[in-house]
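Morning!

This is the sequence you dropped in the shared folder:
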Amino acid sequence: MNLQNLIVCRNILDEEIFTGAGDDFDTAAKLVERAENLGLSGNLYRSYLIYLLAHEPNLISTTLELNGGKIGESLREVFIHDAEILLPIFTNEFGNNYPVLNDYKPTVTNTDEAFNELIRRLEIFSSADELADVFIEHYRRYGCGDIATYRAFRWDKKIIGIKHFETILLDDLVGYVRQKELLIGNTTAFVDGKPANNVLLVGARGTGKSSSVKALVNEFYPQGLRLVQITKPQLKTLPELMETLRQFMSKRFIIFLDDISFEESETEYKYLKSAIEGGVESRPENVLIYATSNRRHLIRETWRDRHDEQEELYRDDSANETISLSDRFGLIIHYYAPTQAEYLEIIRNMLKRRGIELDAETLRLEGLRWEMSHSGRNGRTAQQFVNHYLGQR
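The structure's back. Tokens below.
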């Protein structure tokens, strides 16, 4: 192999493992170290090369992101040229003196869903063209690096992957069928590139509003959906966040504001209003804002604010300012506290998933006793009861 002839994959030249700059023992030591740190298995030369191409940005992956999954024919030909050079590693013809490196079994195997799917897809190909196309399709579907590895991110001047994101699915949420239908319909349109609305999930505490948004990301991750959570103080940085997300046009992002509300004296809501609608710079087409709140109008208002003797001269202007933020969410979904029957059904389903079935009377007595001594009737209280019941068995 003459790696000096690589064009778009030249970052591989920085790796002594492939350039032969070190001796055999040094190369073997580095490969084993990477295998243990990254959970790589099988032929380590091959696995590590796949890892590099999947996680280190190159001209192919960045071009696909910036252009919504499109790539020019000439750039594809250049990539095929590089694939031809790297072919001996992918076909396990790149030899070594240590048999253990040909079928390595790490202590802990890599669990990255996108990476493991790429490994499986690379088990069968017959030419450099097909090899290049497998990577192009991977970049198009999952992206490269952190954007492919993580489903959710936090914002701190850059997007930072959340390693331990909740694995909750929509099927895990009992009840609220209509609410889930509205969420799924809007999000499906969004990931399909169709018109979709920003969403406000509002209602009683503990009813699964935040869990519903997290579950959406787990359901639609293979279709390119990602979540970025920001806090109220970070709202003034929304323009910078949106400009960052504009660089990943082949992906769809939900900017998530959890349990959001404002006092009248707080001005951060003005940044949110501008970001949703009305700013000089348009919101990227690959971004929507989903927010949860216990308040329908988001901005706190008191009866004193409505008093005829208040200093505000034009009362209607003040009222419009207060409610205009929530009005900018095109889809408002209400979550109501469950009835007693619905509350008990939530508990029954949660226990059933753990292989436990209580008779109706025991379930009613135990579930209602727990409700009366806790914070009311909702999904969170039901989950706490189930945790207590399982812990006492």
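Headline: The first strand starts at residue 152 and ends at 155.

More detail when I'm at my desk.
O.
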